[in-house]
Every structure is written in structure tokens, then in C-alpha cells.
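Revision sheet: C-alpha cells.
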Amino acid sequence: MGRWLAIGGIVFLVALTVGLSQADVTKGRVVRIVDGDTIVVEGQGVRQKVRLSGIDTPERDQPWGDSSTREMRRLVAGKDVTVPLVQDRSMGPTDRERVRRW
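Predicted:
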């Protein structure tokens, strides 16, 4: 479990340093940790749910769910982030509009 959280943290840090056009990113502050792979970012008065792409952590009510949520909170809670938009072909078109992934 710790290895996946470390990988998620590395993916997150790389995402912060990648330069993308303004149309391809959401910038804001992490205002809520949903679980180990989902956060809520608020920027310019808009809150948006963000899922970590390529990482699947347990839900909060599953074994290790609380640990993964705590680790995500430790890594990003209250921090300013830049989230690049990644198209996920496994999601339908309406889902792609609702959920941003980094």
C-alpha cells in the first residue's frame, strides 16, 4: 500500500511541474479529501472533483481505506495545485466533463 501512495505522490508532484496551456488545467486549492485517490479543488470560485489517474486506492469503508485517505490528506490538504486534464477513454463523454484527472 505504501508503494502505491508513494507513486501517487510522485505522479502528483510531476503533474505540478508540467507546463500546460491554460485550457488544459485547473488551478486552485485542495479544499477536501474524498478518499485516497479523489480530492476537491477550488479555484476561481468553482469547486471541482479530481481523481488521481492510474491509481486505485481503497474506498474509505474498505480495508486500508482510512490509511490511503490520511496519506492523501498529508500530501495535498490545503495546498495550491495545478491539475492537468487527462482524457480517460474508459469514461463516457459526460463523465469526462464532470471529473478531471491528474
